[in-house]
Design a protein that fits this description.
Oligomer: single chain
CATH topology of the largest domain: Aldehyde Dehydrogenase, Chain A, domain 1
Structural class: alpha/beta
Radius of gyration: 23 Å
Number of domains: 2
Shape: globular
Number of helices: 15
Bound molecules: adenosine-5'-diphosphate
Strand content: 15-25%
């Protein structure tokens, strides 16, 4: 098998002992071999990005539009093939993989347009005859560190704005899903990204990621991943005064009020809690259900969960793919055991499953009789595990929804305009959904949260410019 290399200074470099990328639906299936870099490769990639920056920052918006638009076109044209690669290496279903690839294509198209639209402001000074012009400029070299759970969309929503606004990048993807990262970098390279503008270095977070954080030539870091690593990114970047942006975990609530449409609420909960095997930072893991609808909701959920098809991500009809790897599976099972020990009652799923292929299969788990203080409801599991918390009324539901260290997404199922409007206004989350799952967002509007979920400016949509540019205020006295 050929080794897929890093991209440094416009050349593919294979060095060191490669990483075996395995299929979580079928552990015997090796998806590919990917180079495992060291600190030397990071230093080279950063230096070449630095050298490429002056020319790239002076390209016209049209040149940047053309590059990003071409990348978007190829992603959309190859969505079936790349969606298959995604499902094979990460374990989400083929339909989800194709959808995510299409989304990555749309993100590149959107930011192609943003390259043209980036404007400024011009206004008169408070002093006579002076003009003031406010403009945005690129930052320089940006390090992008991404997780495995959206292996093409998250890189897309960092790479596209970084390039659109004139930055050069060093991209470090997650070790568990280098295939999509490599494919995306290959597309950027062939679409004409000049040498040094786009660099890819694969390998361990503690080596490659850390070297990016420590390098004084990296002007900014955009990170998506766990809260523990996020703290490392924050400490290191703050220590050397580099700009940083963090997207981390969630413990997202879905409130179901007595006046909810039961079918809508069940679909929101099934989709939000269990699709993509619950491995989304926007997953609904706390189902906060009012007493009057509680029993009907739980019965309908249990019935619906029995019918969910958990199997090979690439098999037709699969609704829930495997857990991403053994470590995550062990973690999910430990949370299930812990929730039982803490007094939660498992009403559906939570079992290790055997399928034709040897993969990390787990049936989605639903607990009832849980309280918001249980570990299950405090910490992010990142698996197909949800707890139901019974509440008396709307006020209690809102209080429980907001009683968390996180604040990414929050949902409420209700027919009441009053409660919907109040929830939207008073939820302490960055994204609020009424009668919709907590997961599943548009690509042209901001994404991000509050409290322990996010730090720094929002990603995606027009708001992405806030992170990937710096503002200049220029004063001019014409003589
Ligand atoms: P996840 O649970 O999603 O894997 P992590 O925070 O462990 O979350 O990983 C997210 C990204 O951060 C990955 O690309 C990983 O390799 C990287 N990473 C892990 N440790 C570090 C570190 N010390 N410094 C920088 N990046 C890191």
């Amino acid at each position: 098998m050929d080794v897929h290399g890093h991209l440094i200074a416009g050349r593919w470099v294979t060095a060191g002992d490669p990483i075996e990328n395995r299929n979580p639906s079928d552990i015997d299936d090796v998806v590919g071999l990917y180079a495992r870099g060291g600190t030397g490769q990071v230093a080279e990639a950063v230096a070449t990005a630095r050298a490429a920056f002056p020319a790239w920052s002076r390209t016209t918006p049209q040149q940047r539009f053309d590059l990003l638009d071409a990348v978007g076109t190829e992603l959309l044209a190859r969505k079936q093939e790349l969606g298959r690669l995604l499902a094979r290496e990460e374990g989400k279903t083929l339909a989800e993989g194709i959808g995510e690839t299409a989304r990555a294509g749309q993100i590149f198209k959107f930011f192609a347009g943003e390259a043209l639209r980036l404007g400024g402001e011009s206004l008169p000074s408070v002093r006579p005859n002076i003009q003031v012009r406010i403009s945005r400029e690129p930052l320089g070299v940006v390090g992008l560190i991404t997780p495995w759970n959206f292996p093409i969309a998250i890189p897309a929503w960092k790479i596209a704005p970084a390039l659109a606004f004139g930055n050069c990048i060093v991209f470090k993807p997650a070790e568990l899903a280098p295939g999509c990262a490599w494919a995306l970098t290959d597309i950027l390279h062939r679409a004409g990204a000049p040498a040094g503008v786009v660099n890819l270095v694969m390998g361990k977070g503690s080596v490659i990621g850390q070297a990016l954080l420590d390098n004084p030539e990296v002007d900014a870091v955009s990170f998506t991943g766990s809260i523990d690593t996020g703290r490392v990114v924050a400490r290191t970047c703050a220590g050397r005064l580099a700009k940083f942006q963090l997207e981390m975990g969630g413990k997202n609530p879905l409130v179901v009020l007595d006046d909810a449409d039961l079918d809508t609420a069940v679909e929101c909960a099934i989709n939000g809690a269990f699709y993509s095997t619950g491995q989304r930072c926007t997953a609904s893991s706390r189902l906060i259900v009012q007493a009057g609808i509680h029993d009907a909701f739980v019965d309908a959920m249990a019935a619906r969960m029995k019918a969910l098809v958990v199997d090979d991500a690439l098999k037709e009809g699969t609704q829930i793919g495997p857990v991403v790897d053994q470590a995550q599976l062990d973690k999910d099972l430990a949370y299930i055991d812990g929730a039982r020990a803490d007094g939660g009652e498992l009403v559906a799923g939570g079992e290790r499953l055997n399928r034709d292929k040897n993969g990390y299969y787990l049936s989605p788990a639903l607990f009832v009789s849980t309280t918001n203080s249980m570990r299950l409801n405090r910490e992010e599991v990142f698996g197909p595990v949800a707890g139901v918390i019974k509440v008396a009324d709307y006020d209690e539901a809102l209080g429980v929804a907001n009683d968390t260290a996180f604040g990414l997404s929050a949902g409420c199922c209700t027919r009441s305009h009053k409660h919907a409007a109040h929830f939207q206004a008073n939820s302490q989350a960055g994204m609020v959904m009424i009668n919709l799952p907590t997961a599943g967002v548009d690509y042209h509007v901001p994404f991000g949260g509050r409290k322990g979920s996010s730090y720094g400016p929002r990603e995606q949509g027009r708001y992405a410019a806030e992170f990937y540019t710096t503002v200049k205020t220029a004063y001019d006295l014409p003589l």
